[in-house]
Design goal:
By secondary structure, the chain is mainly alpha-helical. 70% of the residues lie in helices and 0% in strands.
Length: 368
């Protein structure tokens, strides 16, 4: 068998294209993916006629765009095989800038479903999947599933608070459903006859709070059942939450029941009263935002809009409802509730020209 270096020397006489093709084929055959990436960058520089090493500060915009395009192609060329081999951390170095997150998430789920033989290899893969899926935000639900299985409920809730709660609400939903499903199974398994208190109350109350991002009916149904369970616990076994969920079980039961079409008016009255009596300097905007969220979800957008417009402007830090986008924008609420004129009047009073202008892009109506 000819020596590779002799082969490369011979191919070089045929030109750079032959040299690169032969070396690339050899690297792929030997699965030397990092070296292949370096080769592709070298090949890109050669093709563009720029220096083969060093900084490229003088590169014009067109040449830099072509170089970036080839660099991203190289990232995909080496990243996918690395991921296929289970080298998740190494693959992510390349794929984070060059691949669709959904594609990476699908591959991570395949890898998680078929771990390698051997405890050490399986543990390494588990840790790397959790890092990319959960902490890099590629598939938080998958990351939480693994944390639940390997580290338990407490660590999973902590991971959610640290890694998932900062994401937009729509991206939290699948992960929240993992925790709701898990705790729902735990409660169902522990209910034999009278109320069982074997489920950690802190876990229960945390999951009832986390579940507020959920819009799927089956998840809301399970959250409601968890809230009913919480209402049956002895008072001394629970602790107060933040307004308007001071009584976490009772308030959560109303919050989730109304979204299921049960006790709608009692729920609205409860959260309206909570928003009315809350002092903004003590409770922030969460009571009013929770009322608005509930009104939106039960199909009363005009009332939700009015609630937000009546909220004091000096609310300080935004509540989790605002920060994670659980509510649509004021313009969307107004358009959905046929209340664009109401919002326009409020914009005039507040000097909000931007929102005022946006209302005319949301639909036709009187100019106010």
């Amino acid at each position: 068998m000819p020596d590779l270096f002799d082969t490369l020397a011979a191919e070089a006489n045929r030109g750079p294209a032959a040299l690169f093709a032969t070396l690339a084929s050899s690297l792929v055959e030997r699965r030397r993916w990092h070296a292949l990436f370096d080769l592709r960058l070298l090949e890109a520089r050669a093709a563009l006629g720029v220096p083969l090493a060093g900084e490229l500060d003088s590169l014009d915009d067109q040449a830099r765009a072509r170089l970036d395009e080839r660099s991203l192609a190289a990232c995909r060329e080496v990243g996918w095989p690395l991921l296929g081999e289970g080298a998740v951390a190494a693959a992510w170095l390349y794929l984070r800038a060059a691949a669709e997150p959904a594609e990476v998430a699908r591959k991570l789920r395949d890898l998680a479903a078929h771990p390698p033989a051997g405890d050490e290899a399986a543990e390494t893969l588990r840790q790397e999947i959790v890092h990319v899926a959960l902490w890099e935000g590629i598939d938080p639900a998958l990351g939480l599933e693994i944390v639940l299985r390997s580290q338990g409920t407490c660590n999973a809730i902590t991971a959610y608070e640290q890694a998932v709660s900062r994401l937009p609400a729509a991206r939290q939903e699948a992960a929240a459903a993992v925790l709701v499903d898990h705790l729902h199974r735990e409660v169902a398994a522990g209910l034999v006859g009278d109320v069982s208190v074997h489920v950690d109350v802190s876990h229960l109350q945390s999951v009832l709070r986390i579940a507020r991002v959920s819009t799927a009916r089956d998840v809301i149904e399970k959250a409601w059942q968890l809230a009913v369970y919480a209402c049956r616990l002895p008072p001394e076994a629970t602790y107060p939450g933040e307004p308007p969920f001071e009584d976490v079980g009772a308030a959560s039961r109303l919050f989730y029941a109304a979204q299921l079409g049960r006790d709608v008016e009692p729920a609205v009255r409860f959260f309206r009263a909570a928003a009315t009596r809350a002092r903004i300097d003590e409770a922030g905007t969460l009571p009013a935002d929770t009322l608005a969220l509930l009104l939106w979800r039960i199909g009363r957008p005009a009332e939700a809009l009015q609630t937000l417009l009546e909220r004091p402007a000096e609310g300080g830090m935004p509540s989790v409802v605002q920060a994670t986008g659980m509510l649509p924008s004021l313009v969307e609420l107004a358009a959905s509730g046929d209340a664009l004129d109401v919002l326009r009047r409020a914009c005039r009073e507040r000097g909000d020209e931007i929102t005022f202008a946006a209302t005319f892009l949301a639909g036709s109506g009187a100019t106010g």
